[in-house]
Design a protein that fits this description.
The complex is a heterodimer of chains A (121) and B (593). Chain A is mainly alpha-helical. Chain A is 59% helix and 0% strand. The longest helix of chain B is centred in the first third of the chain and has 51 residues. Helix content of chain B is 36%, strand content 19%. The chains are: A mainly alpha (121), B alpha+beta (593).
């Protein structure tokens, strides 16, 4: 009886040792993963600050002004003027009834139009 | 436990037979028993002491070993928990009132050399000199072939430059990580931001420290790790700052001015929305300060804060406001304005020897900018009260704005405040102050009469300052300033929809050796808008402007500073969210007696 308990306890110690060994390695792995992730987070944060700085640099007022001037023909942007302020009362209410009656059974009258003039070459 | 009997029968009988006292035996045994008990107690106590001693020894050994280990081991970042802090740089960002970046950090590299590791010093020196135009080949070669084992070459490299140095392929050229400050908007708000430099430098890191402006003023806050990278939010608005600087630059060039300054300030909180000083500089590449000559000629000089000038007729409204506040005069009371005025050995004249006399109403004194009318008002007020009032407006001490340079810009006061000083100061001569002083004083006078302290930090709440003048006086002063724009010297200042009120000031520049220049002026326009509910105060000051479109050159503020200020208001008021409004008719036109 006594020797059986002895053998069992030895086996239990060996089992626990194996388990602790495994846990130890798992912990090490988890720690190095955390470290790796933190390094990645740090690198991403650094990238983000660089991108923020670049965004601010690309959006600097001088550059935007030059771009607006360069593309004036397309965008027609001018500085904000007092005349551009409106009041709510100046905006017309949307009409309650539709502007045009619903068109039913349309008739094609395109053929009645005089023939379009040929453009001169 | 077996006890020895105190009176063993055998010994007692024996003693009795010998005729001895048996009690002696009892005493003897008692003594022995007590000795034995004492020895046992001592032994136990000694044992306990030893145990305790061993325990303490072990405890102290553990503590000592731990301390020794902690002191001797290299520091290591904790790995087992995720920190929530977001610190990525050693210095916080600076942002404007809308959160746009004014200053941030970049990770770059510095370049250093270790000559003992070098393979081809001559080639490296030649290649470096070709890459960086500011380095000289001979000097580099001397450094590389000398006795030194370590040489700094460049404090900050761009990634392209780093690649170019990499391509040289010299093992003795090495890079260290560096954090640098970046001002993405270039010269915009350069005088406010200041600049940066490096403090203690090592191979792996260097301290980034502020050298001027808010960077220096808030150095401790920006570097404090406890703030967890919280950005410093200024009251400036980047868009408005940009518009103001653009218009001011245009105005300065058109009017051939040497320099210009503008301050746009909230009339209640004192928050500076825009502060410009031209010429300016790029804080990314801050120029070195002038070692000789006038520091105000350097682009580093902040005219809006450091430039103390005689601000001329803009001061007249203070005399008028004080006279009304004291009940000496009303807006329509008549004041003696008979020109010229004799005071002792001095003669006081109007601009271009006009004569507005014999009498002018207080409003007309301001509208026509009469020196003599103002002088007479100042004499009615008296020297002591004038001093007190100007002090309460903040003209006696440097502004409390959060700039490193501000405490050194002390207004220049007359050494002895005599009657003639009272007269000249009433129309802005003999007392020099900065445009920022003037902006704060105008805000105080026009906002309803509570003191305004200028600030560069965004305020989320509004605490009214101590009352300086009454509400009624403030409204009356505002109406006078409005009349200056509608029918006075600042007629170019009218911006439809924004009801600008303001006062011009043209002061001759003092010569360095006493006396005044005839053809050099400081033209200032101090304005407030909209007049019925003041929101912002704008001060524009031009240094030596001259308007040359007419037959003879014009230098007065009405021709120079006022149009520039009007253009600034036209551009920035919509950006500030002010909708144009129709001016209400004066309510007291019929009721006034």
């Amino acid at each position: 009886m006594k020797s059986l308990a002895f053998v069992l306890s030895i086996l239990a110690v060996m089992g626990l040792a194996f388990w602790a060994y495994g846990e130890n390695y798992k912990t090490q792995r988890a720690l190095s993963e955390v470290q790796n992730l933190q390094r990645q987070i740090g690198a991403l944060r650094e990238t983000r600050t660089v991108l923020k700085a670049e965004w601010a640099y690309l959006n600097r007022p001088d550059r935007l002004r030059d771009l607006a001037n360069l593309n004036f023909e397309r965008l027609e942007l001018v500085p904000l003027a007092p005349a551009q302020f409106g009041r709510v009362e100046q905006v017309a209410f949307p009409r309650s009834e539709p502007l045009f009656e619903l068109i039913e059974d349309p008739v094609n009258v395109a053929a009645l139009l005089p023939p379009a003039e040929e453009p001169q070459p | 436990m077996s006890r020895v009997p105190l009176r063993p029968l055998a010994r007692i009988l024996e003693a009795r037979s010998k005729g001895e006292n048996p009690d002696a035996i009892e005493r003897e045994n008692l003594r022995l028993r007590h000795e034995e008990m004492r020895d046992r107690a001592r032994q136990r106590a000694e044992g306990r002491l030893v145990v305790l001693g061993v325990f303490f020894f072990c405890a102290f050994t553990v503590v000592g070993t731990r301390m020794g280990l902690m002191a001797a081991s290299a520091p290591e970042e904790p790995r087992s928990f995720v920190s929530t802090s977001e610190i990525t740089a050693q210095r916080s960002d600076i942002v404007d009132r809308n959160g746009k970046i004014l200053a941030t950090n970049l990770q770059t590299h510095s370049l250093y050399a270790q000559p003992p590791l070098m393979v081809d010093p001559e080639g490296a020196a030649a290649a470096l000199a070709a890459t960086f135009p500011d380095l000289e080949e001979e000097k580099l070669l001397k450094l590389f072939t000398g006795k030194r084992k370590f040489v700094w070459i460049k404090k900050v490299l761009s990634p392209e430059q780093q690649q170019m140095v990499h391509d040289i392929g010299e093992p003795g050229l090495l890079f260290g990580p560096r954090e640098m400050r970046l001002y993405p908007n270039g010269a915009l708000a350069s005088h406010v931001l200041g600049g940066y430099g490096f403090g203690r430098e090592g191979v792996y890191a260097a301290e980034v420290i502020g050298t001027a402006g808010v960077e220096k003023q808030f150095d401790e806050f920006l570097r404090d790790p406890a703030e967890n990278g919280k950005p410093l939010q200024l009251s400036l608005d980047l868009t408005i700052q940009s518009a103001v600087e653009e218009i001011l630059y245009g105005g300065m060039k058109l009017l051939n001015a040497k320099g210009a300054a503008a301050v746009l300030m909230d009339a209640y909180t004192g928050e500076i929305v825009s502060m410009a000083s031209l010429p300016d500089f790029d804080p990314n590449d801050r120029p070195v300060p002038l070692l000789q000559g006038d520091p105000s000629d350097s682009p580093l000089f902040n005219r809006a804060v450091q430039g103390v000038y005689e601000l001329g007729s803009t001061f007249k409204i203070f005399a008028a406001a004080q006279a009304m506040e004291l009940g000496l005069l009303g807006p329509n009371s008549l004041v003696d304005a008979d020109a010229p005025m004799k005071w002792g050995k001095y003669t006081i004249k109007e601009f271009e020897n006009h004569d507005y006399g014999p009498y002018l109403s207080v409003t007309d004194v301001i509208v026509k900018s009469s020196n003599i009318g103002t002088a007479n008002m100042a004499l009615m007020i008296g020297q002591e009260r004038q001093k007190q009032f100007l002090e309460s407006l903040g003209f006696f001490e440097p502004t409390k704005v959060e700039l490193f340079e501000a405490p050194y810009a002390k207004p220049l006061l007359p050494p002895k405040w005599s009657e003639i000083n009272t007269i000249t100061i009433s129309y802005g001569h003999g007392l020099s102050a900065s445009p920022l002083h003037l902006a704060a004083a105008y805000a105080t006078v026009t906002n309803g009469g509570t003191k305004v302290t200028p600030t560069l930090v965004k305020k989320d709440y509004r605490i009214p300052g101590p009352r300086v003048i009454s509400r009624e006086t403030s409204i009356a002063a505002r109406n006078m300033l409005r009349a200056v724009v509608t029918r006075g010297t600042a007629s170019f200042g009218e911006v439809p929809g924004y009801m600008v009120a303001g006062k011009t000031g043209t002061a001759d520049k003092p010569k360095p050796r006493g006396g005044y220049y005839d053809d050099k002026v400081i033209a200032t326009f101090a304005s407030v808008f909209p007049v019925n509910d003041p929101k912002y105060v704008l001060v524009v000051s031009l240094d030596e402007p001259v308007e040359t479109s007419g037959s003879k050159p014009k230098r007065t503020a009405g021709w120079t500073a006022v149009p520039v200020a009007a253009e600034i208001i036209r551009r920035t008021a919509p950006l500030l969210g002010l909708a144009p409004a129709i001016e209400p008719a004066p309510a007291d036109a019929l009721t006034e007696g």
